[in-house]
Amino acid sequence: MTPLSWAHGRRSARTGGNHWNVGPTGRWHVACIPLLASGCLYLGPIPTLEDNVPPEVVRAEPLPDDETAVLIGPAGQSVFVLAKDREGDELRFAWSLSRTGIVGSAYPVFDGDGSQVDLAHDPDLHSQILTCDIFDGENDVVTTKWKLEVW
Questions:
Q1: Alpha-carbon 114 to chain mean position
Q2: Distance separating alpha carbons of residues 106 and 74, to the nearest angstrom
Q3: How far apart are the C-alpha atoms of 64 and 97, rounded to whole Å?
Q4: How far apart (Å, rounded) are the C-alpha atoms in residues 114 and 116?
Q5: 109-148 burial string, b = 16+ CB within 10 Å, else e?
Q6: How far is CA 40 from each of CA 43, 47, 63, 80, 102, rounded to the nearest angstrom?
Q7: 144 DSSP β-pair partners
Q8: Residue 92 CA to its chain's centroid (Å)
């Protein structure tokens, strides 16, 4: 057998209910590995694992907008975010204000898929940026922001 030949037959692997032909059996795998770097022909599909993706914001109220501020009236204002993670990872939400740091009154809503914070009518909130950081433990943080105005 030459370094470019292989034994007869194909090996099949099962992954998630799909059958993948992963190449001929025998010495082909050993002989072709050094050739892959120097231009060996691609002979079949290579099963790959899907990467873990960041969480996705499904709904935010009021809508986050760089142009329009959230108005906080005498009764205050609630802000909430709903998010989903495709892999089902547990989500963590961290709320903060631009000048005062972490907001301590946030609470979970909708079985842990979201979080809400209630903002009181407070002149110190005027012109601050409210931020909600969403983290799934695997990826970069997904950030949602609101500009605040008190009237």
A1: 15
A2: 20
A3: 14
A4: 7
A5: eeeebbbbbebeeeeebeebebbbebbbeebeebebebbb
A6: 9, 18, 52, 54, 55
A7: 132
A8: 12
Whose CA is closest to 134, among 88, 84, 100? Answer: 84
Q: What angle do CA 21, 86, 110 make, to 5 degrees?
A: 155
Closest CA to 92 of 144, 134, 139: 134
Distance CA 139, CA 122 (A): 35
Residue of 116, 117, 110, 58 lying closest to 84 (CA atoms): 58
What pLDDT, in 10s, does the model give residues 69-128? 999 999 999 999 999 998 888 899 999 999 888 877 677 776 668 999 999 999 999 999
User: Helix, strand or coil for residue 36?
Assistant: helix
User: What is the torsion angle, in degrees rounded to the nearest 10, for the CA atoms of residue 109, residue 114, residue 119 and residue 124?
Assistant: 150
Residue identified by tokens 């873990």 is 52
- Regarding pTM above 0.85, the answer is no
